[in-house]
Amino acid sequence: MAYTVEEEQEINNLKAWWQDNYKSIIITSVLTFGAVFGWRYWQDYQEKKSQALSVQYEQLISIDDTLGEEKFKQFVTDNSKTSYAVLALLERARLNVDTKEFVQAEILLTQALSQSSDDLLISISALRLAMVQYQLQKFDSALSSLDKVKGKSWDSRKLLLKGDILLAKGDNISAKSSFEEALSSASPLEKSFIQMRLNNL
Question: Which residues form the signal peptide (predicted)?
Fold first, then answer.
């Protein structure tokens, strides 16, 4: 089949364009494929890593407290940029609170707060830290920790604890104000606790 002059010209132009551009086209294709493959590999790697961390965390919290101290420290160090390290710190602090080791609990919760990047974990760490500092009679530190608790869902617990701290400091007027404010967002059970405090003022 014979080509017309115009068709021959188009074919020659296409050949010339391909000759000039085929390398960049191939490189772009390879890079695009590599980027897609790399992203999928990275997602798969992260998912497997997260699953492995989850298993390690579950094993860690099931270990006897005294036997697991070194493994606990190593886990927190190795995974310091993950939420699992914060969860491990929170769990170990809870065990300390159960045995009334409030000084050690404060150290762990302070570390948990400093390592938290997630808003939920920040609020949980700060609220628990404030509770422990209240037990240690570090009232100003406890109020400072409460300031780091964010989100409406925490308001009633935050204001209730704030009222207790202010009451312990002897500031009955501010404590009453905090308790009354807490009533607006409290659950029925929390309201009963708050009302008892108000009745005793």
Answer: none
> What pTM value is reported for the model?
0.68
- Cβ–Cβ < 8 Å for 161, 186: no
Instruction: Give the Å distances, CA to CA, from 164 to 38, 42, 142, 171, 193.
Output: 54, 48, 11, 10, 11
- Using one digit for the tens of pLDDT, what is the confidence trace for 42-59? 344 345 445 555 555 555
- 97 vs 69: CA distance, rounded Å: 16
Do residue 5 and residue 53 come from a single domain? yes
Altogether, the residues listed in the chain come to a count of 201
Q: Which of 39, 62, 85 is the last residue of a domain?
A: 62
Does one domain contain both 50 and 86?
A: no
Give the pair of three-digit tokens for residue 192: 């009963």
What range does the domain containing 160 cover? 151-201
